[in-house]
Amino acid sequence: MFGFTKVNVNFIANAGVMIYTNKQKILIDGLHRGEDVMAGAVDEDTINEIISATGRFKAVDMMLFSHEHLDHFNPSLTARAMEKSGILNVMGTKAVIDHLRSDEAYSEEFEPRIWCMDMAIGLSTHINIRGINIEAIGMEHDAIGRDCPVNNSYLFTIGGKTFLHVGDAKGTKANFEDVACLKTPIDVMFVPFTYVGIAEAREAITALAPKKLVIMHMPDAGKDDNNWAEKAHMAYTTNSAALPPTVFFEKPGDGFTL
Predict the structure, then answer these.
(1) Using N-to-C axis directions, what is the helix angle for 75-84 and 44-52, rounded to 10°?
(2) CATH class for domain 8-244?
């Protein structure tokens, strides 16, 4: 009998997830201190593990960042992680990479492992890094009372499974419908909690038809004065029949295996 590769999906904090097999590891939006009104922070023990490349974070191949907001990305911590690990590659928007290069912990030695993905909205770029195929897709950021940076969504394959992490992409048809690489079958799609309550965002999910949906970027319980988490669960209950099998990532360590 032929064996199969187990792919593990592990929640870090906010929109941060690690996806890994026994041979490859990708960390997305998973190194920050949650410096945002509603976001949860990566706990200090986990930050130390990532920076020191120990435990489950030993030999991480790639860190992908969707955009530069500090509830997704911390330049100083990222530079320190690159200093420790000689194999760690970092990919992000121009704003992400500019912040990384401006940090005092940055070194010119990092350059061969830094990937600036600077696309116009609706365009994508394919790249293979350490055997991992990645499509970086420029999308409009969902700006609610904030600045509106370019947001990279990432479509990638690891362990024979295909994942789409949208970062903070706005949940509109226009963000998704004309992107050629998204015609590929998707095993797992990661979206912010706002998607379940917006009809147009749900329609975008339905059109992409992922086998599994992960709701992320849930408000930190201690900061959720408007009960957004409860409202997201209620919206899911109301609309679950139109959505694929869904899990909510709310507590660090939540996860599953494919």
Answers:
(1) 40
(2) alpha beta
